[in-house]
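Let us work through a complete example step by step.
Step 1: write down the sequence.
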Amino acid sequence: MTEQMMPTSEEMTLEELTTEKELRRRELEQAFGSYNFVVVRKELFAHLRDPAVTIRKGSITFNTACINGLEDVVFVQLLLCEDEKKFAVKGCQENDKDALRWCIAKPDKRKSRKMTCPDFTDKLYELMHWDSKCRYKILGYKIEFEGETYYVFDLIVKETFREKPKKGEVIDETVDYKKGYYSEDIAGTFGVPVEEHKKQTQVTVENGYINVAMLTGDKKPVEIEQAGKQLTLEDNSAPANSTGEVYPDVEEEVSDGEPVVGEC
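Step 2: predict the structure and record it as tokens.
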């Protein structure tokens, strides 16, 4: 007797195909919880238009996306948690204590502005052990807490750019001053496990400060116990003197209140 052959997908009826897809869907659904997923880091994607703050020696600047995220806000209060290395901003009234103007307000729109603050950035660079010859860009995460909207920035997960030499100083032609780099524990890993990610994004209150656990990763990679290893990204494109290369974003920057295209 000739062995009966299985029908090909072209020979299968629509009902049979639908049944096969449904069986496959159920298999995936049942097995989904056993997969060792990690939440892929936002920093590994181009993020030119994402809310961010740029910190350099002497000033800080919130980009337009960040300003637009807090509708109609012209004055803000800045919050810093030294223990968790978190930086946050929330809107306030002009006459509130420690209110700071973070944008240029015009009748039809608000624009980014450079907030001059050498005393603050000196202390921040010292706290974070940052290089004074670099500027740092940190993505902002918008949260709602007790009826107020905040942007929270994880200072540990920063994108590093070399500052252009000042007038009269020698320019290193081998350095791309527009290209940013993350540290190896950020650039070299896909992300953190799903459960760890949930813990990292929990919002609590501690000592009167909003404590958002590590939003995008710890200082050291988190191991996936079930798999034994953490998923990593190979990156051989970074210069020898850097620890990890990411996409060369070109951010809209400001200088004395006027936008300058092409700087980060």
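Step 3: interpret the result. The chain has one domain: 37-261.
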